[in-house]
Amino acid sequence: MDKEQRTEIETIGEFGLIDLISKNTSLKHPGSLKGIGDDAAVLGPTDLVRVVTTDMLLEGVHFDLSYTPIKHLGFKAVAVNVSDVAAMNAIPTQVTISIALSNRFSVEAVETFYEGVNLAAEHYNVDVIGGDTTASRSGLVISVTAIGEAKKEQISYRSGAKANDIICVTGDLGGAFMGLQVLEREKQVFLSDPNMQPKLNAYPYITGRQLRPDARMDIIHELRELDLVPSSMMDISDGLASELFHICKASDVGVAIYEDKLPMDKQTYDTAIEFNLDPITCVLNGGEDYELLFTIDQKDFPKLEKHPDIHFIGHVTAPDEGKVLITKSQTAVALKAQGWKHF
Ligand SMILES: [Mg+2]
User: Can you give the pTM of this predicted structure?
Assistant: First the structure.
């Protein structure tokens, strides 16, 4: 954002704001019959089923503008919703973005936020078809709804896991959580001495994981090419253990996962040690990685066996076998889902 230029939102008004938001959007999907500009968007019929998901992001609860670049926030707001569409094994097509903002925000700040939104819309090939803008007295509120589509038989629910399925996760885990610890620590340092500049250069990977997560649509497209439908799937927003609990409950199964199979980046590990945290606890309970957790039938294993970014962390068991973590010393311990506490 250009520091010298600041236009008050009241000078352009709500209609001006809507014009500003809509000027860089174009519709790519044949199902997007009408986007921004009427009372509602119009989505055409297709032979596909639709998935719809909404997420709210609140300043002070989900993000802190003292260390979150507003462009990244725009990108992240779209990415986390696309991630929920991906978690259904569907392809995202449209998003609506609603924001409530205080007069603390300038037109330039809103423009920068939407630069991030539009960058994500381009990246995930979705149309921005509407939303709402309103005033807020207590910080920035962002609400995004994402719509996606898939053939009925392609949808992966949480409820489809069965005993002996293989449990898979993409990417690596715990990074976004450790990134958040670094950002929070540097903020405290900055608050106690504003002359100190945050030392973030040493942690580029994990702070990036926190500030600019990427929904794993690449994996969803690959699964289509392989003609593979996961028996169950979720995205990891609240932490691996917590998501596994959801699958166990919805599918009425148990799980056994192996400590030595859990994927972790070296920077995540090193930073956890630096913060006196148990790296495995960070991997199991750190939230916001937006990787995919899914289960596959054993017959599908050869299709993914050599995939460089899919890790096989365990298997589904009968419900009475519980939810266990097999440690490096081959001891089975009960999994605990601390999850990501919003309240
Ligand atoms: Mg989810």
Answer: 0.90
